[in-house]
Amino acid sequence: FDKMSGGVVKVINFQLRSLKFDDSIEKIIVQKISNLQAKRTFEIRQNATQIFKETEIIETTATNTINKIRATAEAEGLKLVLTSKAEAFKTKVSQETLSYKDLKAQIGFTDDIQFLHFIFSNEIPDICLLYTSPSPRDS
């Protein structure tokens, strides 16, 4: 106790050490405490379940976002590859066209049909050598 002015006593620390209650009152108190603990346990479990559900939603959203980003990146990469291949093919065709025009002018052809006939008739055919066993070299 701490004595204050005017005769008022201030309680600094108070501890209930032992009280004896009637059994019926004690049962009521125990039941109340049990009910409060059960209610608090239920609330904690509900909170945990809610947090678990929210975590699953966040994980699913993150996974979906990552998959969308990957798909977009892959599509952009494919687009760049195909665009560069198309540009390379376009450049090749342009160069071949210029080469054929130059060759046509150097040879002196004025007609495209005659020039194409000349090109295809002077083309070297593919040669395929087929060796079968036994050959004279195998002996």
Outline the fold blueprint.
Layout: E1 2-3, E2 9-10, H1 23-107, H2 112-121
Estimated structural class: mainly alpha
Shape: rod-shaped
Figure out the total of helices: 2
Portion of residues within helices: 55-70%
Biggest β-sheet: count, sense, barrel?
2 strands, antiparallel
Low-confidence stretches: none
Which strands sit side by side, in order, in the main sheet? Answer: 1-2
Radius of gyration: 47 Å
Strand content: under 5%
Which whole number gives the mean pLDDT? Answer: 82
End-to-end CA span: 123 Å
Number of strands: 2
The string of secondary-structure elements, in order, is: EEHH
Describe this structure in words.
This protein is mainly alpha-helical and 139 residues long. 68% of the residues lie in helices and 3% in strands. It is built from two helices and two strands. The protein has helices spanning 23-107, 112-121, and strands spanning 2-3, 9-10. Strands 1-2 form a two-stranded antiparallel sheet. The chain is rod-shaped and about 125 Å long. The mean pLDDT is 82.
Structure, briefly:
The chain is mainly alpha-helical and 139 residues long. The chain has helices at residues 23-107, 112-121; strands spanning 2-3, 9-10.
Keywords:
single chain, 139 residues, mainly alpha, two-stranded antiparallel sheet, 2 helices
